[in-house]
Design brief:
Radius of gyration: 23 Å
Oligomer: single chain
Structural class: mainly alpha
Number of helices: 22
Number of strands: 0
């Protein structure tokens, strides 16, 4: 990092942290007590602070990573500064842990952008810092920086594991992946993603060697026709059934294999992936979740995905391959017809934005969910088109992980989309400066509206004195 870039990065990170601290203070003045899921997380962390590590709220469905990190941070700080009484592990102090995670995420996002786009010399230091700032204030993640939720810590350890993986430090990456798993069990998918990065790299090397042997310049490891894809799949099967190749891949990915094995042992002993109350967290094949994620991504990345050039390119592709797109449309309609689930929380909890999205869009008419299929297809095409700079093996691996982390979820919850979105956004090429500025401005506006509604547009339920607030 050059000195000017270091100064610029330090200024951006310090400024963002200062503004976050001011917003943090405003939120804690308005909402002093636990809100929403904090009603479970805060008492559990406070029990750990008092040394009651065997006490557990059965309504909590995630492992105790957040509470262990909180106690590990708060207790030494209390001893060092002489804090006593109700200040230690108070709601405000526990929320501040996530503010620290947010600062860590800022730094990790910058390092990841630097590493992933290392070979792109056309990207300026200003663009890297601007993209880091934009992703750091990504609305769905940034909102939960100010509440005691698992999301900032979950993102921190997952991004850290991904960074270590890219630097080839796989044992450290697996250890950090375990920390991420302790925050949210579904983060095991991103451990598989890290292992998949290693496998995709070796496959890409072998595929290039195969092309050189055959001297066939018509096939690319990045994109191609349907027949090219069949040949790549044949190569993939041939490569993976070779004992020599399997030994090589195992030697490279054994730390991840151990962690995934630990995960399966946990699932077997626990009787499922969810700890605590499982009645509202049942796994299912909810394929439309992929369509919701793609729509979510287009909304938050519209400067990259929703351009006139992309729309023209998509229409051209549509004219060239009508049969393929017709088949995709039919499959999509079938998946929506057979595999759409509506969670009871989605219909009952009017504090979440998803409640209004569902009511105003999907419940407007029974046919709406089918009418949206062309938009889903465009979103999927545009999404895949922005990843064409990655190898076909990386893309296949990412999509497998994306399906694994979204489809089993019955509840439509935007928080579940945070990590797949960030990993996608980190890996697409840098857009023009104008589009980067537009994206940042959009995030700032969304955050401003979100926090305004949370702080000022409160309401009450009938027969309840509690103040309710709108949130993601």
């Amino acid at each position: 990092m050059e000195r000017s870039e270091a100064y610029g990065f330090s200024a951006a990170m310090s400024g963002a942290f200062l503004l976050s601290c001011l917003l943090f203070a405003a939120i804690n003045r308005r909402q002093r007590g636990p809100y929403m899921d904090e009603a479970f997380h805060v008492p559990q962390a406070q029990a750990y602070c008092r040394g009651r590590f065997l006490q557990w709220d059965p309504m909590i469905t995630t492992l105790p990573g957040l509470y262990l990190v909180s106690v590990g941070a708060v207790k030494p700080a209390a001893w060092l500064f002489g804090w006593t009484g109700s200040v230690v592990c108070s709601v405000g102090m526990l929320r501040f842990i996530n503010l620290l995670f947010s600062a860590g995420n800022f730094y990790l996002l910058y390092l990841l952008l630097l590493k992933i786009h290392l070979k792109n010399k056309a990207v300026s230091a200003f663009q890297r810092i601007l993209s880091t700032l934009t992703l750091a204030v990504f609305p769905t993640l940034y909102f939960f920086t100010f509440l005691y939720y698992t999301d900032p810590g979950s993102v921190f350890f997952t991004l850290f594991a991904y960074l270590m993986c890219l630097y080839g430090n796989h044992k450290t990456s697996a250890l950090l992946g375990f920390c991420g798993f302790m925050f949210r069990q579904t983060n095991i998918v991103w451990t598989v993603f890290c292992a998949g990065n290693v496998v995709a790299g070796k496959l890409n090397e072998a595929w290039k060697t195969e092309l050189q042997k055959k001297k066939d310049e018509k096939i690319s490891s990045k994109k191609g026709s349907f027949s090219d894809l069949i040949r790549i799949l044949q190569f993939l099967i041939k490569y993976l059934i070779s004992p020599k190749n399997l030994v090589t891949l195992t030697a490279l990915t054994w730390p991840y294999i151990i962690l995934v094995t630990v995960f399966f042992v946990f699932v077997f002993i626990n009787g499922g992936i969810v700890v605590g109350d499982r009645s509202s967290h049942e796994a299912c094949l909810h394929f439309p979740q992929l369509f919701y994620f793609l729509s979510f991504t287009v909304f938050f990345s519209f400067p990259h995905l929703l351009t006139l050039a992309k729309i023209r390119k998509f229409l051209l592709s549509l004219r060239k391959h009508p049969v393929q797109y017709s088949l995709i449309a039919v499959v999509s309609l079938f998946l929506i017809w057979k595999y759409t689930y509506v969670h009871k929380y989605l219909l009952a909890d009017n504090r979440h934005y998803t409640f209004y999205v569902w009511r105003k869009v999907f419940q407007r008419h029974e046919l709406v969910k089918y009418v949206l299929v062309p938009l889903y297809i465009f979103a999927g095409w545009s999404f895949a088109d922005t990843l064409k700079s990655k190898s076909i093996f990386w893309i296949l691996m990412y999509f497998v992980c994306l399906l694994a982390v979204t489809v089993p979820q019955k509840l439509l919850e935007f928080r579940y989309f945070i990590l797949p979105f960030l990993i996608y956004r980190l890996n697409i090429p840098f857009p023009s400066l104008y589009r980067q500025l537009l994206e940042l401005a959009f995030y700032i506006v969304v955050n401003a509206v979100t926090f305004y509604f949370f702080l000022n547009r409160t309401f009450q339920w009938p027969n309840s004195d509690e103040i309710q607030r709108f949130m993601w």
